[in-house]
Amino acid sequence: KSENLNVLITGGAGFIGSHVVRLFVKKYPDYNIYNLDSLTYAGNLENLKDVEKEPNYQFIKADINDAEVINELFKKYRFQAVIHLAAESHVDRSISNPFAFVKTNILGTVNLLNAAKKTWNGNPDNQLFYHISTDEVYGSLGETGLFTEMSPYDPNSPYSASKAGSDHFVRAYGETYGLPYIISNCSNNYGPNQFPEKLIPLFINNIINEKPLPVYGDGRYTRDWLYVKDHAAAIDLLFHKGKKMETYNIGGFNEWQNIDLVRLLCAIMDKKLNRPEFYSEKFISFVKDRPGHDKRYAIDAGKIKEELNWEPPVTFAEGLEKTVDWYLENDEWLKHVVSGEYLDYYQKQYN
Ligand code: NAD
């Protein structure tokens, strides 16, 4: 990639986006990094306090659903590359309000694609629409097998259906208009700055506060987990070295059943909080299953490993411990987030 590249990162105030923004701002001082985010409940500029004064960073408050504004911004800043993370991202919210997911995840993505298509004629070498997606587009697995890049799309929740739709549009703009793209589909992320509606930070917060730990169904749901900074590093690698017009799976080679994960988390936290062994486990409660709940996701990240020699460096035990330490050290961040709308939502969801 050339120097002075103007890179638009959408959703940079969110969980994964903030790690991607930080990595790019610090690692590539010659790039101009524009973080575009509408700051929904999930966007939090506190996540980026340490980079906000860097000369190569600029925040733009805008909504990807606003086509006019997005077109103007592409003209004004001449973005040459996009890393698109802005999305409605929580499955439970997609069950109560699917339309918001159709709007941002599908229509918002198409707005960005249109703006890129309009402004990017010529020199495709320097252009890239990098779309960040999820392994949930592949649906659910049985006891065995792994999702590969060739697995058919089979989404089950409004969230995964909306992400599948956005993936199809990105690929279609590549095929139809020659728009240079990369898509990566990643497994569940965890780590610092994750909004505490998602399993790991929700449970860390509840363990601290001795609140119930609601586990869906029988707790035997299986997910692959990846440390968020490893995901950001994989995004950096694919952005610079991935083959255009291709899809890559990113995963942690790290499958866990929910109940085992929750027990491990309780054990780590009991140690950190000087509580007796098994103290926090008594707060585990099994709650009614989520409708359309996918039994198992597991990802084959062999393509990125073979082509680009990428493997997640952080093990789950290390990553989880780092995450717990971060939440314990950043209790102000957690307090600010666990308030207002989030609490209402939490009460509706789990009481
Ligand atoms: P997040 O909810 O923490 O962050 C989303 C960000 O997008 C927020 O800052 C929000 O303000 C912003 N946003 C939402 N709607 C917007 C709009 N209309 N215009 C502009 N900004 C808007 O999500 P996350 O967990 O960081 O996920 C980021 C991306 O990665 C999403 O596309 C998600 O589908 C994908 N992904 C997430 C995971 C995961 O485990 N969290 C795994 C794989 C892929």
Question: Any overview of this molecule?
Answer:
With 351 residues, this protein is of the alpha/beta class. The chain folds into 2 domains: 6-190 and 225-250, NAD(P)-binding Rossmann-like Domain (Rossmann fold, 3-Layer(aba) Sandwich), CATH 3.40.50.720; 199-222 and 255-295 and 314-339, Alpha-Beta Complex (UDP-galactose 4-epimerase, domain 1), CATH 3.90.25.10. Helices cover 42% and strands 17% of the residues. The chain contains 12 helices and 12 strands. The protein has helices at 15-27, 67-77, 91-96, 98-119, 158-177, 199-208, 228-241, 258-272, 302-308, 316-329, 331-337, 341-350; strands at residues 6-10, 32-37, 57-61, 81-84, 128-134, 181-186, 188-190, 213-216, 222-227, 246-250, 255-257, 284-287. A 7-stranded parallel β-sheet has the order 3-2-1-4-5-6-10, with helices on both faces. It has a 3-stranded mixed β-sheet with strand order 7-9-11. The protein has a two-stranded parallel sheet with strand order 8-12. Helix 4 (98-119) packs parallel to helix 5 and helix 8 (258-272) packs across helix 10. The longest helix is centred in the N-terminal third of the chain and has 22 residues, at 98-119. It is globular. The model has no long low-confidence stretch (mean pLDDT 93). The protein binds nicotinamide-adenine-dinucleotide (NAD). Nicotinamide-adenine-dinucleotide (NAD) is lined by residues 10-11, 13-17, 37-40, 42-43, 63-65, 85-89, 104, 108, 132-134, 163, 186, 188-189, 195. Keywords: Lyase, NAD. Residues 8-323 form the NAD(P)-binding domain. GO terms for molecular function: dTDP-glucose 4,6-dehydratase activity. It catalyses: dTDP-alpha-D-glucose = dTDP-4-dehydro-6-deoxy-alpha-D-glucose + H2O. Its EC number is 4.2.1.46.
